[in-house]
Amino acid sequence: MKIGYALTGSFCTVERSLQELRMLAKENSVIPIISENIAKTDTRFGKASDTVAALTEICGRAPICGIVEAEPLGPSVPLDALIICPCTGNTLAKLANGITDSTVTMAAKAHLRCDRPLIIAISTNDALSQNLHNIATLMQRKSVYFVPFRQDSPLSKPHSLISDFSLLPATLENAMSSRQLQPLLV
Fold first, then answer.
1. Residue 55 has what pLDDT?
2. pLDDT value at position 75?
3. Which CATH number characterizes residue 69's domain?
4. Within a domain: residue 17?
5. Alpha-carbon distance 179 to 173, whole Å?
6. The pTM is what?
7. Is 184 part of a structural domain of the chain?
8. Would you call 162 exposed, middle or buried from its count of C-beta atoms within 10 A (0-12, 13-18, 19+)?
9. For every residue of 57-120, which 3-state class applies, written as one string?
10. Which helix (H) or strand (E) holds 17?
11. Which candidate, 28, 7, 135, places its Cα nearest to that of 81?
């Protein structure tokens, strides 16, 4: 398959996301896509340049990191599926409300024009507060599927959810058959 694989700024989960990408890239053609924050922000979890280098090495091509580059990913450059892993609360909110002001949201908008699967692996500290309605909105949308998720630290971060990235391949397989992997809450 030809898969778009997008990363947004949940920096603490980027390494786990790259592990899943390595496995997907063994059997699929993958186009990497990164948010502006992933492209430029160095954090305690790593340098932006190291993430870009890892994506380039894994996928055999530099990541798309601009709105203009992402726009053709619909009809002009069709993907079988687009994965956003990790997907931040900010990106969730933009997708739910039709805001297309970043590389990843443009890639998703362009991709969804063709009713092909968009797989979202959330990682956000406000999922059970400000973003709960955005998750519900996206769950109702055609062609949008979630990697099953759980609370990652219920006592210290009671509003936080994270997808079980190891379930990404099974979610992709189900999404390709227009099914949401169950159970959604793990």
1. 98
2. 83
3. 3.40.50.1950
4. yes
5. 9
6. 0.96
7. no
8. buried
9. HHHCCCCECCHHHHHHHCCCCCCCEEEEEEECHHHHHHHHCCCCCCHHHHHHHHHHCCCCCEEE
10. helix 14-27
11. 28
Q: Name the burial class of residue 151, with classes exposed (0-12), middle (13-18) and buried (19+) by CB atoms within 10 angstroms of its CB.
A: middle
Q: Is residue 115 part of a domain?
A: yes
| Tens digit of each residue's pLDDT, the chain (186 residues) | 999 999 999 999 999 999 999 999 999 999 999 999 999 999 999 999 999 999 999 999 999 999 999 999 988 889 999 999 999 999 999 999 999 999 999 999 999 999 999 999 999 999 999 999 999 999 999 999 999 999 999 999 999 999 999 999 999 999 999 999 999 999
Alpha carbon 67 to its chain centroid, in Å, reads 16
Domain boundaries, position 110: 2-158+166-175
Is 127 a domain residue?
yes
pLDDT value at residue 49: 97
Question: How many distinct structural domains can be found in the chain?
Answer: 1
Distance CA 50, CA 151 (A): 29
The structure tokens 């990790």 sit at 86
- DSSP structure class, residue 51: H
List C-alpha distances in Å: 81 to 2, 38, 49. 7, 21, 26
Distances (CA, A) of 103 to 27, 38, 73, 109, 125: 25, 11, 11, 10, 22
Amino acid identity of 91?
T
